[in-house]
Design brief:
120 residues, mainly alpha, globular, single chain, Cytochrome Bc1 Complex, Chain D, domain 2, two-stranded antiparallel sheet
């Protein structure tokens, strides 16, 4: 019985890795497909990002201007920027969702600085 269990667990892990059932790696997908325009930091300050007027995805107000379904549709179906269709990637839905989740992790929190004169 123990030998069957010992063989089953590694087989299940191999199957999970082979079928990618652990989920897509959002950072890897982003790096492979999105960095050219959005930049590694998500600010869109690359040569292509500036040309296409990519918004800064490190800002919460950018993310607040659309929902996850709209982001997914933009990546999957593409959008038109300056007369040019961009994105429209033919990749698995899970990869798209993972890349969006990764991009969301690039958000920075810009809390207002404390007034140093208030305590004096």
């Amino acid at each position: 019985m123990k030998s069957i269990l010992l063989l089953t667990i590694p087989a299940a892990l191999v199957f999970a890795v082979a079928t990618n059932s652990f989920g897509a790696d959002g950072k890897a997908v982003y790096t492979a497909n999105c960095v050219k325009c959005h930049g590694a930091d998500g600010k869109g300050q690359t040569k292509m990002g500036k040309r296409l007027e990519i918004r800064d995805f490190t800002k919460a107000e950018t993310w607040n201007s659309f929902d996850d379904d709209e982001a997914f549709k933009a990546v999957k179906d593409g959008i038109t920027r300056n007369g040019e269709k961009v994105m429209g990637y033919k990749m698995p839905d899970d990869d798209i969702k993972a890349s969006i989740a990764y991009m969301k992790s690039l958000q920075t929190t810009n809390a207002p600085a404390a007034d140093s004169t208030a305590a004096k």
